[in-house]
Records
---
Amino acid sequence: MKKVGFGILGAGMISGIHADALRKSSKAELVAVCDVRTENAQKLVNDYAPTAKVYSDFDAMLADPRVEVVNIVTPNHLHTQFVLKAAAAGKHVLCEKPPAMSLAETDQMIAACEKAGVKFGIFVQSRMREPMRYIKSALDSGRFGKILRVDVQMKWFRNADYYKMDAWRSNRKCGAGVTIQHAFHYIDILQYLMGRGAKVYAEMRNLAHPEVALEDTLDAEIVFANGVRGFVQASTALWPGNDVRIEVYGTDGTAVMSGTAMSAWKFKDERPEDEIARKAGSAAATAGGDPKALPSEDHQFVIDDCVDAIRENREVCIPCSSVRGTLEIALGMYKSDKEKKAIELPFSDEDSIWA
Ligand SMILES: NC(=O)c1ccc[n+]([C@@H]2O[C@H](COP(=O)([O-])OP(=O)(O)OC[C@H]3O[C@@H](n4cnc5c(N)ncnc54)[C@H](O)[C@@H]3O)[C@@H](O)[C@H]2O)c1
């Protein structure tokens, strides 16, 4: 079957993961790359897809009939305008996380994609890691019993050069900061597992990056609408950085994902197939100390799923609508830190957060 043509907008640091995933895919193909810095786009094409076309103008790439899906890989605060343009041009969209800097923009993008009849997925790809798929399925079948706690520990490190690479990386209004930029993936996993957040309390600090006016450390508690509490400890200050841990504790079972591997899978009703679940995932690095040390398999999962969703005329595996609740929790964390109190969700004055 003919491969579906993808275009990448934004050929910066993480674009190689997208291009690598597309190169490995048997369903999708990188046909175009666009960046205002043409040299970035040209390098990505040279490295991963020599037959792909280089663009410096997004409208021109959107006019290319070979481009059926656009991956938006620009800095966080620029996602919305490009998603809206892609939808208006009738292209399916896969956008990097976070979807946008506000719920209003997120709702606008969801509505535009719905109206245009195009798919709109978000790369919170850690949701789709093999161990997470086992955990979600056990949760949905009630195997954990009553859920008691869900926790995240993301003890990462980013050096001063990381924050200086581009201006947006040290500007909160552009989506920098450990909460919305890094921990977003794992706040998303808690939201994916537990559903809507009802209340958040967060404290943010800058422990080790005096050169930037940002939080490099987040300690937060989320109370989900189902009554379960989740704790998030996230940092980019903790050298040399460790694998992230996601822990799920129920009355009847416990599961822990460390990095990309299952590190605990224990149920009171032990089953023969549990041996397979215990081996889920791999020892691949997950950006604990190096932002580029990411496996491309998770991105490939999202890309391949999008192709299947187009062919089968169904929803993608991570629709933006399913990530809205994550953004609401993350924004609630910023509001909580600013106002030094717990915040009930939903809240209305989101514009005050970045003021
Ligand atoms: N899913 C993940 O695991 C993961 C990991 C890292 C980054 N990200 C996300 O990926 C996105 C990009 O991050 P990055 O680290 O690659 O950023 P980056 O700054 O390294 O790259 C962004 C690229 O976009 C280009 N760009 C900026 N404005 C543009 C415009 N108007 N038109 C065309 N191109 C433009 C820049 O020239 C640059 O090449 C962000 O949303 C980030 O949050 C996701």
---
Amino acid sequence: MAEARCMKCRTQVEIQNPEEVINARGLKMIKGNCGACNTKVCRIVGKA
Ligand SMILES: [Zn+2]
């Protein structure tokens, strides 16, 4: 289960529909939605 900091809730939340992506800088991230407010959240996991 992945967690990320939600900007709206200002707390650590569980990522809904987590999806692993590699961003432009080559960092692996998990992105999804906040379980509480449905705002997009993402978490950097590490280098790809
Ligand atoms: Zn939230």
